[in-house]
Specification:
Nucleotidyltransferase, domain 5, 2 domains, 5-stranded mixed β-sheet, 10 strands, globular, binds 5'-O-[(R)-(carboxyoxy)(hydroxy)phosphoryl]adenosine, binds zinc ion, cytoplasm, KAE1/TsaD, tRNA processing, iron
């Protein structure tokens, strides 16, 4: 029997979840809206808002899961990677809580947890599988051999796919974080209206930095000729950019699947909420006979449910850490 309380605070969402015998029975997410005023996450503000949110989020998670503090058998937390000030709030809280309850502490790598989110609900992938993890900070193709035996086989050399979405949104004067809004407009636009070159990057790696700049130059050039270009073509621009990003991601994922001879294919991270990527994955599954896995929406973007399930699998192995643990902004995979 195990009840694990998990805390995620790596970026701008404070999240607390409960895993009761391998089932997620609470996943509270307190979003921070203050960053919308600045067009991006302000680390110092994020850290302060985590401090305000963490106790109410823990209380709400206990209520939702219908358990009390005394029922908790372990406390899991995101150690990194992420914003140091944000991580510090979650790690400090987890340590104090575990100490007060006299239960073990479980350290979780945020990027492992995005992948392990696939083990929350059925259907679950079988090992080995490939996972494309696409978020605001990361773009990786991971060969997953077991719960904690994973290898990055391709990754971005510069910016993440989520940043390409968010930067595009910013250029189009859409509010932060713009990825979901680009997705929304894209659904009404023509994906072939404008063409953006696919970066030619070796192996299974990605690059989105030049791609981002090419969108900037394209929009500037069009605006010189027609100052209302964005307003008149918003849906088509979003659809075309989204189509290009999805092509870049899917081409590498297909290459990886072929190279490793694997047909169990998963996606994870905030960008896996993208409708274009979901459609692209479904198409590839139909064409190539893949079994595909996409976590429920609430487990795609940052959430403590994924930390809780990762914590549960570490709990089974009695993989605990001591009170001397500290957060790591850059944490090895
Ligand atoms: O995993 P996540 O919540 O946080 C990080 O660890 O980075 O991912 C956030 C990223 C942001 O860049 C956001 O714009 C993007 O995921 N995102 C989307 C969509 N939903 C979230 N991008 C495109 N389409 C979406 N529907
Ligand atoms: Zn994340």
């Amino acid at each position: 029997m195990s009840v694990i309380l998990a805390i995620e605070s790596s970026c701008d969402d404070t999240s607390v979840a409960i895993c009761n015998n391998g089932k997620i029975t609470a996943n509270v997410i307190a979003n921070q809206t203050i960053h919308q005023n600045y067009g991006g996450v302000i680390p110092e503000l994020a850290s302060r808002v985590h401090q305000q949110n963490i106790v109410p989020a823990v209380q709400q998670a206990l209520i939702n899961a219908k358990v009390t503090k005394q029922d908790i058998n372990a406390v899991a937390f995101t150690r990194g990677p992420g914003l140091l000030g944000s991580l510090l709030v979650g790690v400090s809280f987890a340590k104090s809580f575990a100490l007060a309850l006299n239960v073990p502490l479980i350290s979780v790598n945020h990027m492992h947890a995005h992948i392990l989110a696939h083990f929350i609900d059925d259907p679950k992938p079988s090992f080995p599988f490939l996972c494309l993890t696409v978020s605001g900070g990361h773009t990786q193709i991971v060969l997953v051999k077991d719960y904690f035996d994973m290898e990055i086989v391709g990754e971005t050399l510069d910016d993440a796919a989520g940043e390409a979405f968010d930067k595009t949104a910013k250029l189009l004067a859409l509010p932060y974080p713009g990825g979901p809004l680009v997705d929304k407009h894209a659904q009404h636009g023509n994906p072939l209206a404008f063409k953006f070159a696919e970066p030619q990057i070796a192996d299974l790696n990605f690059s989105f930095s030049g791609f981002k700049t090419s969108i900037l130059y394209f929009i500037r050039k069009q605006e010189k000729e027609n100052p209302d270009f964005i307003a008149e073509n918003l849906d088509d621009i979003c659809a075309s950019v989204q189509y290009s990003i999805v092509q870049i991601l899917m081409n590498k994922l297909k290459k990886a699947a072929k190279q490793y001879g694997i047909k169990e294919i998963a996606i994870a991270g905030g960008v896996s909420a993208n409708s274009g990527l979901r459609n692209g994955l479904q198409q590839a599954a139909d064409e190539l006979g893949w079994n595909i896995y996409i976590p429920a929406f609430q487990y795609c973007t940052d959430n403590a449910g994924m930390i809780a399930i990762a914590g549960y699998h570490k709990f089974l192995k009695k993989d605990f850490v001591g009170q001397d643990v500290s957060p790591m902004a850059r944490m090895e995979f």
